[in-house]
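Lab notebook, bench 4. Still working through the backlog of constructs that have no structural model yet. Next entry is a single chain of 321 residues. Request: give me the structure tokens for it.
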Amino acid sequence: MPHATQQADTTQQADAAPGELDSALRGGPFHVALRAAIAARGLPLQRVQHHLSCRGVKVGVTSLSYWQQGARRPQRPESLRAVRALEEILRLPEESLIRLLAEPDGPPADRRSAGRSHRSLVEASDVLDRLLADFGAPRDGGLHTLGHHERVRIGAHRELAERESHHIVRAHRDGVDRYVAVHHGDPGSTPERMTVHALENCRTGRVRRHHDTGMLAVELLFGTRLRAGDTFLFRYAVEDGTAGVSHEYVRGADSTGGQYALQVRFGSGTLPVRCHRFTQHSAAAPRSGHQELTLSGLHRSVHLVEPRVRSGYLGIAWDWD
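Model written out:
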């Protein structure tokens, strides 16, 4: 029977398209390459687990499923041993899967420059401190966030075209009359060409831009002074569209807060092949909490809702075909 199984595996491999697998192995990310390799061999996950077990490697079917979905990444020594065994079982070049795990988030080559690297997040945080100091504003601005709903629009050329934010805040000191909004464009963006629109219960004040990080900061003036305990609602948007292909949207928070909802809507043209949410405790920490999200083909959108925001980063990433 083992011989018959091996024969069936070989036949299925011959029917697979090698181009897709070769591309995934070259560019990643890890979970896409693993999924393509398993599909090329025509093996159900139970058979993959059986082959691993025969080599003395114990990995559950659930773990294998998480690995190929991008919901988990092999990290422990036993898991890395399993990845090396998978290269043999799936008849892949040596180090082809292990190599893709060297990247913190396993992105494809064209995404390494487009994604939010640890260094870019640290630099952006430093720049934000300087911009806020220039405004004479503290990080929280005297406001606590009760609710924040963001809508991100991806344009026809797959660029980050626009972001709209709807805030519900409460003042924790007297005299608060403004909010400093920050927009961090994709790598290669040009803040000088971005436009801010005050949509509801606010107007724009001073604007500051930092070209190297693609960051824009703007005062939104309420036209009234809040007392401690007062709530306020306001809405604004930033037209961007100045960078190349977008692969993710990340939102950072310094402290715990209220509910956060993020909706990403994709314009005309192709839809991404998959989307997932992720979290990151700090700019220097690896990403975690990967969870595949359902993309609505009818509404061309995907979303997440976080009942209570914690400090760190939260976002949605997507893979194009």
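Notes after review: The chain has two domains: 2-102, 114-319. Residues 1-17, 103-115 have pLDDT under 50 and may be disordered. Flag for follow-up if needed.
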